[in-house]
Amino acid sequence: MALQNIGASNRNDAFYRYKMPKMVTKTEGKGNGIKTNIVNNVEIAKALGRPASYTTKYFGCELGAQSKFDEKTGTSLVNGAHNTSKLAALLEIFIKKYVQCYGCGNPETEVLITKTQMVNLKCAACGFISEVDMRDKLTTFILKNPPESKKGSKDKKAMRRAEKERLKEGEAADEEQKKLKKEVKKKASSKTSKNHTSDEDISPKHDENTPEVDDEDEDEDDDDGIEWQTDTSREAAEKRMKEQLSAVTAEMVMLSAKEDEEKKKTPKSKENGVGKEEKKLMMEMKEYLKKGSPISELKAFISSLSEPPQEVMDALFTALFDGAGKGFAKEVTKKKSYLVAATEEDGTQMHLLNSIGSFCGEKGNEDAAKEVALVLKALYDEDIVEEEFVMEWYGKGLAGAEKSSVVWKNVKPFVEWLQSAESESEEED
Q: InterPro entries, from UniProt (predicted)?
């Protein structure tokens, strides 16, 4: 069976992995009873992840003709004689409206019906929720005939429950172990206290018959006849004051030296959350971009900078997308050529991902953080960032102190999509 890429925009992509069968139609009957049979509609609908009744109904709605899908036989019929090219063109519109993600264009979407009876598409790759135009006639049919929930959802819930139970059991085991450790420590401490008491018993007791020695007599014996006096002369007093002052001065000098050392060790002084050096670097990067120099010269300019590579990438990313919020993903797609030039060296992909994370994680960039998965999908499709670096970056982010950040929550759908794509390719192999 001949296959083609899903979506007209992907028609010429030889490496596109989402494919569907080419439409095959057959005209049946004569006169007023003539009908068009979409022979392989079931296979097409399966490839699109939609019920075959949806595509059949859509053809009928758009052509203004009666349509019928037989669940038992899998036959899709549309009244009238319609050529294959016309129906194929309508199918492309159906894919754009009811299959492809409005954000990243990926066809791996799920139809969701909200509590307010709205039809949405949830993307498995970027997590974007696409709102379908409810003025279309097909939306009424979808609301009356909602798609069946995925078979694996029950299994997933069961797996989540089992995982929670395992975690609870693990926590209970940890508590038991802590209790045991505490009991062992108590026993050990009680033994040591007993040993101390026994030592006290062993120590020699005061003998009542032994004659007591007066403390004053002892002091007199210790002095060995030496009399101690303090020099109260003016010269001696001035000398003592100078010694005290010099000690205080020395202490102050030591404190100031310690402060200087701490300043050197700590990061550059911050001004409104951005270091002075970082701000200077960003301004320098903006000035370079304003000149309109060829993108091919960007690599040489970056190499000429003395700052660490991560700081340079942060400055470039901020200079390119400063102020970008809603529509952040579109801006990245527009300026992707700069990112291509900046990620030619080894290790720069991770620097770019770190810059994306820090940019989206800053206060005031909440709208940009919502589109972080779209950005990663666009960069991944353009081979600017590779799967292994994304997975490593995501793993480090979750293990870090800011694992609860909204950035990682929004990145998660894209990572899960990468993992599912990898498992599918392994199964195919």
A: ARM-type_fold, IF2/IF5, Transl_init_fac_IF2/IF5_dom, Transl_init_fac_IF2/IF5_N, Transl_init_fac_IF2/IF5_Zn-bd, W2_domain
